[in-house]
Write a structure and sequence with these properties.
Layout (H helix, E strand, L loop, with lengths): L2 H29 L13 E5 L7 H4 L5 E10 L12 H30 L3 E7 L5 H12 L6 E5 L10 H15 L4 E5 H9 L12 E4 L19 E5 L21 E4 L4 H7 L15 H6 L3 H10 L3 H6 L12 H5 L10 H14 L10 H7 L2 H37 L14 H6 L8 H15 L6 H4 L16 H4 L5 H12 L2
Parallel strand pairs: 1-2, 2-3, 3-4, 4-5, 5-6, 6-7
Antiparallel strand pairs: 1-8, 7-8
Helix pairs in contact: 4-5
């Protein structure tokens, strides 16, 4: 090989090595969360233990990557309150359970104080067993006595009969919410997490609990259920299952090989900010296709939507359409629906109050002068005056329409035969000030009138005391109410007096 070719080969080798390095660096951030994140010095670690794990707190706290400690609290249901009803071996077993309960509670409290003295985050978990889930939740809260900043978790080792069922786990989590005001973190293995993800409709609460993921392999790319949980709260990557004296993913100072080690996707500062993972996982947003919604409607509904969605220009050109109120006025918000405009009355009043508070305070003799001279400028006063006058007209119009709707028939009955309806100049002053005529009705009034007509058509017969006030029934059905004077006309005067007295004392 010549010198030239050798130099070329060396340069080519260097270029390939550099390109490979660039590719590795660019791929690392995307895969770091799923491929052995504990190998990165930036990722925080959390230890979890049960009562038989010995701990040297001085050595353990010397590892600055370890930011938290989670300890087992309760296991299944609490022991029986009394052993007096048992005998023999059952009595001994009952007493032993109470001894273990007392010792475990004392150890738990001691570890909590030690961990917090060392500046570690604290958490507790409950080992879910078959049995009353609400009673287990109460047992856990009473045992752990969690503070607001303590992580609380439910441990479901597997989806089998040996452990709490997933349905009971939903009830457990609900009871924890009732007792503490927040939901627990869910600890489970990869297969159970995948099952919950595939059956989210059956487990709507479990699928939204922050996930404490247990899986003892370096790379979980494509294995973690990202469709339900965007990421893990914690990932338990090391335990007695894959750690021994010869090899271990991570050796913890001050603990034996059977200790459980968890990694966070966050650094120590980020983990402290996210702890104790008290928020539910956000549900993925479901994008709705408007075309599908419209297609699901019946033809009648589509026709009504099309009618209501007429362009404003068509409404303005309508023959009997009322004139549009001034934009930004009260009438624009409360006038007929065809010319509805957006207005926030609270915003108007708030603005007036704010200007009144900020403006100079003056004593004026005439009502309204204080508002005009001390609070608002001329333009604002004129605008407010428009609002008030328009509101008066709208209120007057609404009152007139309601009266016309419910007593219009009575007016027609009492109007002389051949007489026409009142014209604009014959209408009340309120209607004339509003500049409205009887044809100017809103859609609301039309709907109410239609509903009132339907109600009258389906109405039950009125009581006799109401019918008696309307006079005798002249229909073909015959009289339904006979006046009392006609009813006793054939009786002598003494008998009529007796009947009247009897009626008065009934």
């Amino acid at each position: 090989m010549t010198k030239t070719s050798a130099a070329f080969a060396a340069a080519l080798k260097f270029a390939c090595t550099l390109a490979a390095g660039v590719m590795l660096v660019s791929a690392t951030p995307a895969q770091a969360e799923w491929n052995a994140p504990w190998k990165s010095e930036d990722n925080a670690l959390v230890i979890d233990a049960y009562e038989f794990n010995p701990i040297n707190w001085q050595e353990l706290a010397s590892d600055k990557r370890i930011a938290g400690f989670i300890n087992k609290a309760s296991d299944g249901l609490p022991p029986e309150w009394s052993c007096g009803k048992s005998s023999g071996d059952d009595y001994k077993l009952c007493k032993n359970r109470w001894w273990k309960y007392s010792v475990t509670k004392e150890l738990y409290m001691t570890r909590r104080e030690m961990a917090k003295m060392k500046g570690l985050l604290w958490g507790a978990y409950h080992l879910g067993r078959p049995g009353n889930p609400r009673e287990q939740a109460d047992h856990f809260v009473d045992f752990a006595e969690p503070a607001e900043d303590d992580l609380i978790a439910l441990d479901i080792e597997d989806n089998s009969d040996e452990w709490m069922s997933l349905s009971d786990a939903e009830i457990f989590a609900d009871q924890i919410k009732i007792r503490t005001g927040r939901y627990p973190v869910l600890y489970t293995n990869g297969s159970t997490a995948r099952y919950i993800s595939q059956n989210k409709a059956e487990y709507p609460l479990l699928s939204r609990l922050p996930l404490w993921y247990a899986r003892y392999r370096e790379d979980i790319t494509g294995k973690f259920p990202e469709e339900t949980w965007p990421s893990y709260a914690l990932w338990q990557f090391s335990s007695m299952h894959n750690c021994n004296s010869r090899s271990c993913p991570y050796r913890v100072k001050g603990a034996k090989t059977d200790i459980d080690v968890n990694v966070s996707s966050l650094d120590v500062a980020g983990l402290k900010a996210a702890w104790p993972f008290a928020e539910l996982i956000d549900e993925p947003k479901q994008e709705t296709d408007p075309a599908m919604l419209v297609a699901s409607l019946d033809e009648g509904t589509k026709a009504e939507i099309a009618k209501a969605a007429k362009p404003r220009s068509e409404v303005a050109k309508a023959k009997d359409a009322p004139s549009a109120p001034v934009a930004g006025t009260v009438a624009a918000a409360y006038g007929p629906s065809e010319v509805h405009a957006t207005l926030d009355p609270l915003k108007i009043l708030t603005e007036v109050a704010r200007k009144e508070q900020d403006g100079p305070k003056r004593v004026v003799a005439e009502p309204g002068a204080a508002l005009a001279g001390a609070v608002l400028d001329t333009a604002a006063v004129e605008q407010l005056g428009d609002h008030v006058e328009t509101l008066k007209g709208a209120i007057a119009y609404a009152a007139n329409e309601i009266d016309r709707l419910f007593i219009g028939r009575a007016e027609a009955a009492t109007r002389p035969e051949g007489a026409s309806a009142p014209q604009l100049d014959e209408m009340p002053n309120a209607d004339r000030r509003a500049g409205l005529d009887p044809k100017q009705r809103s859609r609301f009034l039309a709907i109410v009138e239609s509903a009132a007509a339907a109600q009258r058509a389906n109405a039950l017969p009125m009581p006799a005391r109401v019918l008696s006030q309307l006079g005798p029934d002249t229909s073909e059905r015959g009289s339904r109410v006979v006046p009392q004077a006609q009813r006793h006309a054939g009786l002598e005067r003494p008998e009529r007096r007796i009947l009247s007295a009897f009626a008065a004392t009934r």
